[in-house]
Amino acid sequence: MKKIPYFVFISLTFVTSCKDKKEEMKSDVQPPIAKIVPHNLEKHGDIRTDNYFWLNDRENKEVIDYLNKENDYYEKMTAHTKELQGDLFKEMKARIKEDDTSVPYFYNGYYYITRFETGKDYPIYSRKKGSLEAKEEIMFDCNELAKGQAYFSLNGLSVSEDNQWATFGVDLVSRRQYTIRVKNLITGDILPEEFENTTGGTTWASDNKTVFYTKKDPKTLRSDMIYKHVLKSDVKKDELVYHEKDDTFATFVYKDKSKKYIIIGSSSTLTTEYQFLEANNPNGEFRLFQKRTRGLEYSISHFGDNFYIVTNKDKATNFKLMKTNEKATSKENWIEVIPHRDDVLLEGVDIFKDYLVVEERSNGLNKIQIRPWSGEGAYYLPFESETYTAYTTTNPDFDTEILRYAYQSLITPSSVIDFNMKTKAKVVLKQQEVLGGKFDKNNYVEERIWATATDGTKVPISMVYRKGLKKDGSNPFLLYAYGSYGASMDPYFSTTRLSLLDRGFVYAIAHIRGGEDLGRQWYEDGKLLKKKNTFTDFIDCSKYVIAQKYTSPEHLYAEGGSAGGLLMGAIVNMAPELYNGVIAQVPFVDVVTTMLDDTIPLTTGEYDEWGNPNEKEYYDYMKSYSPYDNVKVQSYPNMYVSTGLHDSQVQYWEPAKWVAKIRALKNNDKLLFMHTNMDAGHGGASGRFEALKDLAKEFSFLLDLEKIKQ
Q1: What is the Cα–Cα distance from 696 to 691, expressed in whole angstroms?
Q2: pLDDT digits over 480-499, tens only?
Q3: What is the Cα–Cα distance from 471 to 452, expressed in whole angstroms?
């Protein structure tokens, strides 16, 4: 930075003086430079030189030192935003109803409730017998369990049919490797047995003493084995019920809604398979429902004497509904109930005694259809908003006319609604409260626009902003997307997002290919050898909002996490000039190296998503877009990158290497920050308020670039 001559300096105001001192202090802070240790990686006769491969070692003190130096650099460079971060945290926290309680649901004689208490980070799980007026029984107070822990997650809470026992999984590292324990809900005692390295969930047999659970491969973290445990027995003697040996599949176990069957599932990206066993016969042999056939996907629901099957059988790309007798389950016995539709994606069904509830997606929006088994008067729930999210929630009982569903939009807080399928009357049981007295949905506008992609495809964008927006290109604009695994990014309400909207930001979600927002083909056109459509769709959406003068490159920001972080890595290589800033959360950016390493968690199960680079065609295509491999000498936008040391989904070294390489090659002075949470993994901090601090970091990054001080 050029220094101001003394005779000019003394004539400036005190405020300007302090500001300049701050800038001088920042200019003295130098970013850490990762050492270069060339490491050659060869495949298909192609040699890639990875100068930062050495960062792949979380036990190496030099690696930890480097990550800490990056954190220190971030802290020093953003010291001037600490007050803003604190204000944002307080502001976002103040909107949250701290002593919040979920809508109770009734199951097997008890009302189950999840609640939070003022000032506490973690939930309390409780129940009341028979009536909401009954005495509360606290099953688990996670605030007590989390004491002294840098990270805490409770998962897979499951209660036996006699209501006496509860199993639960705990992760204290954030690697999603849960240790399962068993609690006596009558006495409060926790049994000594522990099931380690599991998914956290269990399934109870009807005898109230046998539980089935899923273990993970300790290295790859693939869910590959189903075990059976009998209470108060030696865990070391637990019986291996099923071993999923195909390393492209993961396995899981659950009990169906009718409680008649325990079901073991195996799934890959393109193929599924199920086995089932009567829940009252836990020592019996599981029977195959329909053997795996590559490309055949199906899911099953039991009701009466039949199974109902959502499947893509017979090239039903958007899926259809079929049924079969429980004694004849192979696919030649399946009978069509709802046919395949080219313009409607069948996402799932919920079954009741007198009604079939169908969840669909058409034109990019959720639809819920009620179909009486009598065949008369099928109808859809009415949703009037231009862009919204609606889905069924907890519906454990067959014999009821009440459907519970949730609804929200970009300006409508989340609501839980009980809907009478016979009378069509609805009761809003709860709407998310926004505290502080400042929120009024009428102050905001939500809309859906359609951008045209390079190949002519129309891509929807959902957006929200405060009323009075002028389309003059001056608005700060945050564009978010994910675009992988067929995950649809539905418009949702956020109290924290108000901190951006109320400061003039437009927030938008680009529903790009790679998700299933516009049906299964939308997903198929954004994976494998069509993956680049995901990136070009986002770029084209960016160009469109600029062309429509919602914003400009000086005020456009992009955000994505995990596979959405891959998207961020691709767009900053392909079109860095479109963005003033980019937020990349736990980004999957070293695609080729990761997908060639089958010891890394999740790799082998994702060949159908990204391709198998052991095959040259996929290797070459992957390499052509892999963010890390395509970093080059050019101007990059301002960037904030976050990761977690214990991340099991995207290893910390991917963003670490990526940032080191960009820092070495970028030819401008734009900001480049990486913050590593040394106590967390893929999901970030575990407490509800700790997570707000991470969000305050991101928001302050954006607001500082926009020179918005408060």
Answers
A1: 9
A2: 999 999 999 999 999 999 99
A3: 19
